[in-house]
User: Fold this.
Amino acid sequence: MKDAFGAPQSMLVLGGTSEIALATARRLIARRTRTVWLAGRPSPALETAAADLRVLGADVRTVAFDALDPDAHETALGKVFAEGDIDLVLLAFGVLGDQSRDENEPGSAVRVAQTNYTGAVSSGLVCARALQAQGHGSLVVLSSVAGERARRANFIYGSSKAGLDAFAQGLGDALYGTGVHVMVVRPGFVRTRMTTGLPEAPLATTPEAVATAIETGLRRRSETVWVPGALRVVMSALRHVPRAVFRRLPI
Amino acid sequence: MPADTVSVTGWGRTAPTTALLIRPRSYEEAAAAVRECGPRGGIPRGLGRAYGDAAQNAGGAVFDMTGLDRVHAIDADGGTVLCDAGVSLHRLMEVLLPLGWFVPVTPGTRYVTVGGAIGADIHGKNHHVSGSFARHVLSFELLTADGEIRTVSHGTPLFDATAGGMGLTGVILTATVRLQPVATSLMSVDTERATDLDDLMARLTATDHRYRYSVAWIDLLARGASMGRSVLTRGDHAPLEALAERTRARRAPLEFRPGRLPAAPAWMPEGLLGRTTVGLFNELWYRKAPRARSGELQRISTFFHPLDGVPHWNRVYGRGGFVQYQFVVGYGQEDALRRIVHRISQRRCPSFLAVLKRFGEGDPGWLSFPMPGWTLALDIPANLPGLDGFLDELDEEVTAAAGRVYLAKDSRLRPELLSAMYPRLGDFRALREELDPRSVFTSDLSRRLGL
Assistant:
């Protein structure tokens, strides 16, 4: 159960090697979290991530999960919920893709869309139903500022995040009043493996900062969290910039 | 029977979860609800005054017992009452005071049910003399997980597991309670001020035994030399002679007339109770109290239940809700108490309802809270930054001093500390395992702490 401050005792990470998710897990283990499920494709990286969290004193288990195999989501995640209540589901998987290659290879562009959007729709719905049955819990969805307005530089990734973001908002409204809380997290440029080698955008942030924002959002039962918070203002201005101007902006 | 899916919280309004609220109107309906409540179980609920998650059950059932509220029999000579568990102490006072009887123990609110009073084994300002509520319960009827109704007498293991057992042994249906005789419905109250914590502890230690009821309001925002300054109010039921001749009170000495103000509005701005407002309130409250006054006549509602006059007062903390922290440390652990009070006052926690009192002998309930020693209760807005870590640190102090926190008020304790605080937790778990192997009786509290 979550305590009065929204600190979860158990969590399930979809995308168990995500740096943001692991930073969040470390932070929550320092508070109340004692049980962590890391769902991801079986790999040495997943086992290393689990071992690193075990050192902090949590009971960490891994479960095979592939965003690109939605037919298996029901079984894989059902197994986790059958073991006990999950107070927090962190939907953290996603791929950036390679914009210039993806524009030329529709097949690889579709993989980005299927991972980031279709995979999230399927696993998100499976988790939402399980959370609803237990009458409590939070579903935290890692969206992105890239989904807020499509940019020339990464519109394939951005459009998949836009779909995910809209899905998560709608799901949050659908679950309002059921005891389940859905929180959409929109980080800006985060310095991780995913963004290594890319030119850094203004207001760049770290996985630790995103983890802090998630913990605060859980405490406040927020519906939307921007990281850093200043992006909320920046994006609400950018949203209204005319297309003709927007496409020429150096962003 | 009526049932709705609703969002449920405790009085502190933190951590809402959703459950099916079932309102049984007869013992048969209650038994049916227990038998049919599904894999996530159920938990009885009274008037929802437990601060934390004791009467919530996410995804399962919550049995609202307030529909079962008949007073069955009053023995006006022997001083006992047999009533349903859903009867409130308020109702009992209305019924019993005209007959010259009072409830044996009342907490700071009349709006608790008899079932809740047993389940939390509540205490009041008379604990140092009278012990907790269950000490005055002769027997009760308990609906257990198998759907059977058992009569449970004082002094049996099932009684001691249920007294303070937070509803996890079963649903109490009726109880027989021994009452306290009174000559009037007024209180004779002595008030004095204590200039700091040591002064307060000295006064309480020296003279508490002279009063049936005793409590100290303590200003936790005061720092330095006045740290722990407080107002002591102590007294007893006024005898008939204390009421002046030819007054309304003398003509109707047992009349019960609690006042009631308008309710707090449903929406309150956040941060209304910050350090400035609470600091001002505390300053005024301390200054307005007389340095010393004795024999003042007060109504029962004024002396015991000042907050009951404002329905939904818990809303003043805004949407974020509040956390109540109550702990006890034994006699001989005064240094731990001083350290904790010091830390709270250094931290500038805006608490305007902080109360210190002395407990008497402990009670036999396995998870009963009181033990001989000092107990401090305070409430704090839940959105105060860093409050979670701070209270964890206080828990460490309390545990190191062999003390404990009160489960009826808890919403955030670390489960690891529980067995140190409650040494009979093992017995409780074993009895529950035997009586209720499928954990039919489950609450958010029991899930969170692994009770």
Remarks:
- Chain A has one domain: 10-247.
